[in-house]
Write a structure and sequence with these properties.
One of its GO terms (cellular component) is nucleus. The chain is α/β, with parallel strands linked by helices. It folds into three domains: 10-84, no CATH class; 125-235 and 330-460, Rossmann fold (3-Layer(aba) Sandwich); 236-326, no CATH class. Helices cover 36% and strands 13% of the residues. The chain has 16 helices and 16 strands. It has an eight-stranded mixed β-sheet, sandwiched between helices. The chain has a two-stranded antiparallel sheet with strand order 1-2. The chain has a two-stranded antiparallel ribbon with strand order 3-4. Helix 8 packs across helix 10 (282-304) and helix 9 (266-275) packs across helix 10 (282-304). It starts with 9 loop residues before the first strand and ends in a 16-residue tail after the last helix. 38% of the residues are buried. Residues 243-304 and 468-475 have low confidence and may be disordered. One zinc ion binds at residues 12, 14-15, 17, 33-34, 36-37. Residues 189, 199, 359-360, 445-446 line the site of one zinc ion.
């Protein structure tokens, strides 16, 4: 269908330039817009995260507010838009970022495999499912060359098992149990972030150099520190205790397994059923088998399932249904998690000195741990670096903690000032912080850990030569 109105030269209603080819993409005949203006309008919908609306016919024309029909847009723009559609996987249970046609390039940035474009936000559902594939991807990097970290499942069970569905995983470097020199403890903030990440949004929109913990792991290696990475946000696991009688129920649960917070991946559930025939927990095992058999049926059905159905699944603005979850015993809150990991794992490290980096709500977890275990921790604690974190000293806190903070803790706060510049509260005594505060070098909270890594290690090891270079590219 052609949308050019007449052979005479007309004006674009937006830029008022004369053009032979104008496009009317809404129901209002007066809204004739040139290709360049359309290109700008669509680009701005992409950068503002509204392009998903176009596919649902909910993106409105800037002139009349009627919905824009995408099949009326200039051909070149349609091609661009179709490349965004190629980031919709052809399954509702994606396992890898490649299924989204995304991958990380050599600069550790997420890019479209075919067009090399940056990530384009489609819907929250699409974003969340991609995000959980990134969780899996980052954890697989942590476990493989050159990092080769060990994955530990908590709570520790009396008998070894391959069934980890009701546990939470943390990671230790392979020298954790032997390195006597020092150990770095990494505690992320609250929310969706899983081991290896400071901020999911930065891993998606910026790069792993900013959003992930790899730069900290690399610096730790340089300074001969072992590393332990906590997982304080995974405090519950998915349970299915009702028999599943419909395919829909199975599909909902499966989807949530891949997407939801506090879940172990569906993969592990399936492995469990295959591997673990000696489980003592028979009730649980049989439920897993039900999931497996129904999801197998589901997969078969999905092959025939038309792509329109999958597309509308990803374009839906409804949140994914919440799965039924149970709290992980002994690790049911972030604070409990940190305490458990300290008592059961960190105390097994032979390191003489401990260094801690805590971001955001991780700071609160750390304060809780210090108060609970100060006599054991303080003697071997070298330094603490907070990155835009939630922590404060209370009047009841011990002098040991207060003095430690004065001498050996630093807080990198979100700020426009250059990284490391002292933030001075000299005129406002009520705001005197618990420890010295310096700029993280970025005004946004989620960027602070990524931007301050050099400063953190200069604080930990002041004898280091100052490095003026940009953030080093690390080899994953
Ligand atoms: Zn125009
Ligand atoms: Zn219009
Ligand atoms: Zn944060």
């Amino acid at each position: 269908m052609t949308t050019t109105t007449s052979k005479t030269i007309d004006e674009c209603v937006i830029c008022r330039e004369e053009s032979t080819k104008l496009y009317q993409c809404c129901s209002n005949e007066a809204d004739q817009i040139c290709e360049l203006c359309w290109s700008k309008l669509i680009s701005s919908a992409m950068t503002s995260g509204k392009i998903g609306l176009l596919f649902n016919e909910k993106l409105s024309c800037v002139c009349c507010s009627e919905p824009i029909k995408r099949e009326c847009l200039p051909k070149e723009i349609q091609t661009r838009i179709n490349s965004i559609l190629s980031t919709v996987p052809n399954t509702k249970n994606p396992k890898t970022i490649e299924e989204f046609n995304y991958s990380y390039n050599k600069s550790n940035e997420l890019r479209h495999c075919l067009t090399n474009e940056k990530f384009i936000f489609l819907t929250q559902r699409h974003y969340n499912l991609l995000g959980s594939c990134i969780d899996t991807y980052i954890q697989s990097l942590i476990k493989s060359d050159p990092w080769n970290y060990e994955e530990i499942w908590l709570p520790i069970k009396d008998e070894p098992t391959n069934d980890h569905h009701d546990q939470v995983n943390i990671f230790i470097s392979n020298d954790f149990k032997t390195n006597e020199n020092g150990c770095l403890i990494l505690i992320q903030g609250s929310g969706v972030v899983r081991p290896g990440q400071w901020a999911r949004s930065c891993c998606i929109n910026e790069s792993l150099d900013i959003g992930s913990m790899f730069p900290y792991m690399a610096k730790a290696k340089e300074h001969n520190l072992s590393v332990i990475i906590l997982n304080p946000n995974q405090t519950s696991y998915v349970v299915v205790d009702k028999p599943i009688d419909t395919e829909d129920a199975a599909s909902i649960n499966k989807e949530e397994n891949a997407a939801g917070e506090g879940t172990n991946s569906t993969n592990e559930k399936q492995d469990t059923t295959v591997v673990n025939t000696t489980s003592t927990d028979t009730k649980d095992n049989s439920t897993d088998e039900q999931i497996l058999s129904t999801s197998e049926n589901k997969d078969k059905k999905e092959e025939n399932c038309d792509s329109d159905d999958i597309l509308s699944f990803y374009l839906s603005s409804d949140p994914l249904p919440r799965p039924l979850t149970k709290k992980i015993s002994n690790l049911s809150t972030s604070r409990e998690h940190v305490l458990y990991v300290y008592d059961q794992i960190i105390t097994k490290s032979p390191a003489k000195k401990f260094y801690i980096v805590a971001h955001s709500a991780g700071g609160d977890c750390l304060m809780y741990l210090l108060r609970k275990r100060q006599d054991k921790i303080l003697p071997n604690l070298a330094k603490i670096a907070f990155t835009d974190s939630v922590h404060s000293l209370l009047p009841l806190d011990s002098n040991e903690i207060k003095n430690f903070f004065k001498a050996n803790a630093i807080h990198f706060v979100a700020s426009d000032e250059p990284m490391g510049k002292l933030i001075d509260y000299v005129y406002d005594f009520s705001r005197r912080p618990a420890c010295q505060e310096v700029s993280a070098g970025h005004p946004k909270h989620e960027y602070t850990s990524g931007y301050s890594v050099q400063g953190v290690f200069q604080f930990f090891f002041p004898s280091d030569k100052t490095q003026d270079e940009d953030i080093e590219r690390i080899k994953l």
